[in-house]
């Protein structure tokens, strides 16, 4: 009988070892490229994926963005006949030198890790490197509420090297004003995003020196319609309702007193509700002026009835005395 032999599985039979593409074992990557020489230029660009949250109480914002770094490290160069780049994941990032960029004034930040670390490293044959990550950061934003709710806020996300001064690392926007891209679908419930733009300057620390700092600036303008429905219209109605007591007979004491107290308490509730959603600032906001003026009108309507009741009581007393005489 003819015995059929199975073909040998080539994947199991291959026992050779491919030649290592990057000679990372031959160099000390604890030192930056061109250590001891001129500063290494590191270009930065990014794409804002979303603005997740703007908090007036905490005075901060949360942003998710793709952050990309560009630099040249000749220690990572490799021979190539077609001049094509090679792409690696986060495992190689832990073995080579990467810029130590951090977010200034950030409260918390993290690199997304589902389903794996959202990190990409692309190396070109001449040693140029592209390092990209997807990160979410919560940073503080100093807000001015003096014109609230007709205010506009400008917030900044600041990037800077933690260890390397401008003598070792030159951080810059790779494409100038075109270095920052935004998703067209970015929207917020209470704000209209007017514009994004980038700036840069030097930051000085007395103990360590000068550092290059990059800024992602964005301007927000608040939508007024929500506050018209929740604050301004109710306040207008309460003031008008307090005027109804002027047409109620002054002898109907329970009706006028209950109406006046109800409008006063309602205005107090509106003021408390607005201030509960705002930080405890030491200056007066525009909405405070409007609400307190409305509160004064409502309160004066209660005082008006008290004054009318008192004056009419005095007048009736005088008339009674005249009749008795």
From TrEMBL:
<feature type="domain" description="Neurotransmitter-gated ion-channel ligand-binding">
    <location>
        <begin position="24"/>
        <end position="223"/>
    </location>
</feature>
<dbReference type="GO" id="GO:0034707">
    <property type="term" value="C:chloride channel complex"/>
</dbReference>
<dbReference type="Pfam" id="PF02931">
    <property type="entry name" value="Neur_chan_LBD"/>
</dbReference>
<dbReference type="InterPro" id="IPR018000">
    <property type="entry name" value="Neurotransmitter_ion_chnl_CS"/>
</dbReference>
<keyword id="KW-0407">Ion channel</keyword>
<dbReference type="GO" id="GO:0005230">
    <property type="term" value="F:extracellular ligand-gated monoatomic ion channel activity"/>
</dbReference>
<dbReference type="InterPro" id="IPR006202">
    <property type="entry name" value="Neur_chan_lig-bd"/>
</dbReference>
<dbReference type="InterPro" id="IPR038050">
    <property type="entry name" value="Neuro_actylchol_rec"/>
</dbReference>
<keyword id="KW-0325">Glycoprotein</keyword>
<keyword id="KW-0868">Chloride</keyword>
<protein>
    <recommendedName>
        <fullName>GABA(C) receptor</fullName>
    </recommendedName>
</protein>
<keyword id="KW-1003">Cell membrane</keyword>
<dbReference type="GO" id="GO:0005254">
    <property type="term" value="F:chloride channel activity"/>
</dbReference>
<dbReference type="InterPro" id="IPR006028">
    <property type="entry name" value="GABAA/Glycine_rcpt"/>
</dbReference>
<feature type="domain" description="Neurotransmitter-gated ion-channel transmembrane">
    <location>
        <begin position="231"/>
        <end position="320"/>
    </location>
</feature>
<dbReference type="GO" id="GO:0045211">
    <property type="term" value="C:postsynaptic membrane"/>
</dbReference>
<dbReference type="InterPro" id="IPR006029">
    <property type="entry name" value="Neurotrans-gated_channel_TM"/>
</dbReference>
<keyword id="KW-0812">Transmembrane</keyword>
<comment type="similarity">
    <text>Belongs to the ligand-gated ion channel (TC 1.A.9) family.</text>
</comment>
<dbReference type="InterPro" id="IPR006201">
    <property type="entry name" value="Neur_channel"/>
</dbReference>
<dbReference type="InterPro" id="IPR036734">
    <property type="entry name" value="Neur_chan_lig-bd_sf"/>
</dbReference>
<keyword id="KW-0628">Postsynaptic cell membrane</keyword>
<keyword id="KW-0472">Membrane</keyword>
<keyword id="KW-0869">Chloride channel</keyword>
<keyword id="KW-0406">Ion transport</keyword>
<dbReference type="GO" id="GO:0004888">
    <property type="term" value="F:transmembrane signaling receptor activity"/>
</dbReference>
<keyword id="KW-1015">Disulfide bond</keyword>
<keyword id="KW-0813">Transport</keyword>
<feature type="transmembrane region" description="Helical">
    <location>
        <begin position="289"/>
        <end position="311"/>
    </location>
</feature>
<keyword id="KW-0732">Signal</keyword>
<keyword id="KW-1133">Transmembrane helix</keyword>
<keyword id="KW-0770">Synapse</keyword>
<feature type="transmembrane region" description="Helical">
    <location>
        <begin position="224"/>
        <end position="245"/>
    </location>
</feature>
<dbReference type="InterPro" id="IPR036719">
    <property type="entry name" value="Neuro-gated_channel_TM_sf"/>
</dbReference>
<feature type="transmembrane region" description="Helical">
    <location>
        <begin position="257"/>
        <end position="277"/>
    </location>
</feature>
<dbReference type="Pfam" id="PF02932">
    <property type="entry name" value="Neur_chan_memb"/>
</dbReference>
